[in-house]
Amino acid sequence: MDREERNKKYNLYVSSKSPKSREWPNLLYAFLIGGLICCFGQAITDTLQIWFPAMSETELGAWTLTVIIFITCILTGIGVFDDIAKFAGAGTIVPITGFANSICSSAMEFRREGIIFGMCVKMFVVAGPVIVCGIVSSILVGVIYLIL
Amino acid sequence: MKLNRLGESTIIFRNKPKIVSRYAIVGKKEGEGPLGSYFDEIIKDDLFGQKTYEIAEREILQKAIEGAIKKGNINFADIDFMIGGDLLNQIISSSFSARHFEKPFIGLYGACSTMSESLAIGAALVDGGYAKKTICSTVSHFATAERQYRFPLELGNQRPPVSQWTVTGAGCTILGSDENSKIYIPMATFGKVTDYGIKDANNMGAAMAPAAANSIIEHFKDTKRKPEDYDLIITGDLGKLGSEILRDLMEYNGYKFTNNYCDCGQIIFARDQKTFQGGSGAGCSASVLNSFILDQMEKGIYNRILFVATGALLSTISTQQGESIPCIAHAIVIEREKEVVNVDNNSNNEYIKRKNGTSKKIKFSK
Amino acid sequence: MLLTYLKVFLTGGIICLIGQILINKTKMTSARILVTFMVAGVLLEGIGVYQYIVDFGKAGATIPIVGFGRTLARGVIKEVSTKGVLGILTGGLTATTAGIAASVIFSFFVALIFRSKTKHS
User: Fold this and answer.
1) B6 in a domain, yes or no?
2) Which is nearest to C94 in space by CA: C68, C72, C116, C69?
3) Inter-chain CB pairs, B–C, below 8 Å
4) CATH number for the domain that contains residue B80
5) Which range of residues forms the domain containing residue B275?
6) Do residue B157 and residue C29 have CB atoms under 8 angstroms apart?
């Protein structure tokens, strides 16, 4: 049997034999927890608006993100976040919590290799591409906007 | 010179190098598994009181080697070589602990197949009269493997259902020549690097199963033996999915495994321990061999086994570059000098029998 | 009030649900999910669609990383119209700097205090 053909056949066989993710519980948890995190964010925004009525919408949004990021970092620090994320899946990855957790977990992980070359260098090991791709695509949008 | 070899890749040890001592040490999670009572030592804290996980891994290996020396009442001066390897870059765990023992050191990299590779080389050294005793050892640690091959520990991601859990644990076997021990290694089959084009680094079992099948078939061809000639054929860390694939591949090639086959990765964890496909890592096969399996052999439950540790020879760079995963497996025959009547080997171990239920009936076919 | 929260919950939940479907179907890692949603947010804001989702779902649309991408694109578009060409470079990060700086500084201090722990399940 030709090697490529054999590999192709084997890959097909393996993917039909491999167990798939349990679809429904995963989707349900992601939906519920993702929704709850967003509601929590809305609650922060509403509270801040009552306390500081002068705040603009942009400022409120920034403060809300900051509070959620702060809570995420603390939960990551005490080692609770990954336990929640195991159930929530995309429910914690997709909100800003996932972004903050990826930076915080990388910083903690490589802290043992020193502050500068460990923590500071590796901090963006997961989140780096997010920022890079975000900036590149936003500049693209800006260029198109300028031309139009 | 006479060639001590059978067929293409099986070497014979005519002087029967003996297993004179063994020691297995595992982490907390593994200790809570079904084999917990067989391990010599269970550590409570995965950091093992050290500053980093890398140092902890090193200390665990050192402890296993020291434990084996102590347990077998072995004169440290009789040990001529230390053979071993691990999963970390530049096998730092093994070489750094070799610094502590100050013995001639043979460092190996066979990924998770290191245990059988080190046993084969150790047996050859003892058999050839080059060493009175050799240390064969390997170690793996969940936290160090995770950070080297995967993601930061605290990153909140979900493990895919085909993934396996790297075992925190170390195993050390001391081989010697002129001992009273009844357990010896008569032959070993070195495997060839096999690649069936699996690219998913999470699905190690599927990547390694062809390598295991290859080595086992090679072994049967060289020795003209059949699966029934062994009381137990045990693979290293194929996990649940991988071992089902191996059964299929063997059947496809005309060898049928019955209840005398199982996998270390599959038996080290219980189903409710949420490891998905079971354990993996060099320490998986090493700790299971040096506890449960050799214990069962000493008791006379098994008289002849085929131990096939499997390794995936990938690196993070090859994975990122989208390459498939080459794998290897080395098979070691371990025998016990017969004095008890051979018990019916199909009914002797209920636990392994229970583990062997297959879930999905999909066969590898033409 | 209750209706607002229901809308927030639904919007946020559905965005996360899409993420989970991607994880289940394509074996994407969390980093890839983050990148995809970030870029999706930038592009959706670029073509002017995302504002409608934000108007409907409020925090449900701004808390997910898609909202972060939207802020990025919105910053660029705003500065381009006020400052011109230079706005392409300055706008995005100016608008998102709170989120990025907060993540960096909190992570920095958290990592000074805590170390990563091994998992047990």
Assistant:
1) no
2) C72
3) 31
4) 3.40.47.40
5) 183-355
6) yes
Interchain proximity A37–C23, CB inside 8 Å: no
Q: To the nearest whole angstrom, how far is the Cα of C29 from the nearest Cα of chain B?
A: 8
Task: Tell whether B149 is within 8 A of chain A (Cβ).
Answer: no
Confirm whether C39 is domain-assigned.
yes
- Domain check: are B147 and B282 in the same one? no
pLDDT of residue B364: 57
* pLDDT for the residue numbered B357: 52
A75 touches chain C (CB under 8 A): no
State the smallest CA–CA distance between residue A5 and chain C in angstroms. 24
Domain ranges in chain A are 22-147
Provide the number of structural domains found in chain C.
1
Question: Among the three residues B176, B199, B230, which one is the final residue of a domain in this structure?
Answer: B176
Residue B197 sits at the chain A interface (C-beta within 8 Å): yes
Please give the Cα distance from B227 to B208 (Å, whole number): 19
| Interface with B, mutate which of A12, A14, A81 (most B CBs under 10 A) | A14
**Predicted confidence (pLDDT) at residue B235 exceeds the cutoff of 60:** yes
Residues of B in contact with A92 (CB under 8 A): 156
Q: Looking at the predicted structure, is the pLDDT value of residue A20 above 90? A: no
Chain A segment 119-138 residues within 8 A of C by beta carbon are 119, 123, 126-127, 129-131, 133-135, 137-138
Helix, strand, or coil (residue B28):
helix
Give the 3-state DSSP-derived string for C14-81, with helices as H, strands as E and coil as C.
HHHHHHHHHHHHHCCCHHHHHHHHHHHHHHHHHCCCHHHHHHHHCHHHHCEHHHHHHHHHHHHHHHHH
pLDDT tens digits along A81-91: 999 998 888 99
pLDDT digits (tens, 9 = 90+) for B244-276: 999 999 999 999 998 899 999 999 999 888 888
Residue C27 lies in domain = 2-113
Q: How far is A76 from chain C (nearest CA, A)?
A: 8
Pair (B304, B328) in one structural domain: yes
Chain A residues in contact with B51 by the CB 8 A cut-off are 112
For residues B289 and B244, state if they share a domain. yes
Mean pLDDT along residues A30-55: 94
Residues of chain B contacting A106 with CB distance shorter than 8 Å? 152, 155
**B202/B335 same-domain check:** yes
SS (H, E, C) chain A: CCHHHHHHHHHHHHHHHCCCCCHHHHHHHHHHHHHHHHHHHHHHHHHHHHHCCCCCHHHHHHHHHHHHHHHHHHHHHCCCHHHHHHHHCHHHHCEHHHHHHHHHHHHHHHHHHCHHHHHHHHCCCCCHHHHHHHHHHHHHHHHHHHHC
pLDDT digits (tens, 9 = 90+) for B78-107: 999 999 999 999 999 999 999 999 999 999
Contact B362 A13 (CB under 8 A): yes
Residues B159 and B267 in one domain: no
pLDDT for res B359: 46
* Residue C121, domain member (yes or no): no
* ipTM of the complex, rounded to two decimals: 0.92
Contact B151 A126 (CB under 8 A): yes
Cβ-defined contact of A7 to B147 (cutoff 8 Å): no
CA distance B306 to B330: 10
Total domains present in chain B:
2
Q: What pLDDT is stored for residue B358 in this prediction? A: 46
